[in-house]
Amino acid sequence: MTIQNNISLRPFNTFGLEARASHFASFDSVAALRQCLRTGIKPVLLLGGGSNMLLTQDQQALVLKNDIKGIRIVRTFDHKVWIEVGGGENWHQFVLWAVQQGFGGVENMSLIPGTVGAAPIQNIGAYGVELKDVMLRLTAVSLETGKTKSFSRKTCRFGYRDSLFKQTEKGKWCITSVVFSLTKTRHKLNTSYGDIQKTLEANGVTQPTIADISKAVIQIRSSKLPDPANLGNCGSFFKNPETTTAILQKIQQTHPQAPFYPLTDGRVKIPAGWLIEQCGWKGKRVGNTGCYEKQALVLVNYGGATGQEVKQLAYAIIDSVKEKFGIALEPEVNLL
Ligand code: EPU
Questions:
Q1: What is the pLDDT of residues 179-203, one digit of tens each?
Q2: Which of 1, 135, 137, 260 makes an SS bond possible with 268, Cβ 3.0 to 4.6 Å?
Q3: CA nearest to 175, candidates 112, 125, 116
Q4: What are the structural domains, with CATH classification, of the chain?
């Protein structure tokens, strides 16, 4: 374990933004993490894949990169299997591994950037499936005491792009491993999301396997979402806002085609990408940053953008959506 000083964080965030860390180290085991914590340098900032954060300034902190690897089957049953995955594993590589083994449950979440350890923090999800649907428990190390604790699915208090780790326990834990419960047979295929059904049909698939679904999701995502290797971004920048049916009805008076998803509590969720596009932002470039041409929910770095520039664009978008629709968008990414 070596602590480095004054390190560029550009390679560690998918937006490709320049910001420096006063102290930096990576760890590949719980013991190495504890060693880093024992240096007493504070505050501690944990990095996963850096795919959900906007660096708006240099970090006077001990920035730690989770490199804990490993995928192992901890228990097998007739129809399911429990798998423990190191927090530093790449999420998509884990999904590909599961699909290849014939284990079902994570295929709809193919190609989501980031690490396994970061996935529970915002309860990642796509195409009708969320992490909470497949997670059994996780192990985390307290950044305060260095002690290990197990969290069940229930204690994580998962919500839409939300968990305990974004609320009361924010910034207090490092998720070192996650246990998933995946199916070996009797897979619960989720093809209800419109785009998946359309893509499977276009691929000539009538009886989809988990591999067919993973392939379809990869096709959809690659066609709509920019690859951070070519164009810096953090996926969805904003959450899809939840609002009342009264506000939706008001919007429908002028926009009868407005898309929405009914929620169980009688409220509705309106796609932020649609609201942003209606305000004229889609494909718009402002300096070195902009709103992606194929999915307005994604902000991009055309090269050389600063975190402040991206933040300013985000706030200009929030203001115009608020003015036009009376809805306050909230960032999904963490502003640091
Ligand atoms: N839409 C527009 N204009 C746009 C973008 C979207 O009109 O520029 C409309 C679409 O036509 C569609 C609706 O908005 O009617 C929904 O669009 P899409 O299916 O692309 O999904 P989304 O609501 O924009 C969410 C997640 C994504 C996830 C997809 C698929 C959030 C914040 N985003 O996006 O997650 O992949 O659904 O399940 O919930 C992420 O969190 O980083 C992410 C990419």
A1: 999 999 999 999 988 799 999 999 9
A2: 260
A3: 116
A4: 4-66 (3.30.43.10), 71-183 (3.30.465.10), 232-335 (3.90.78.10)
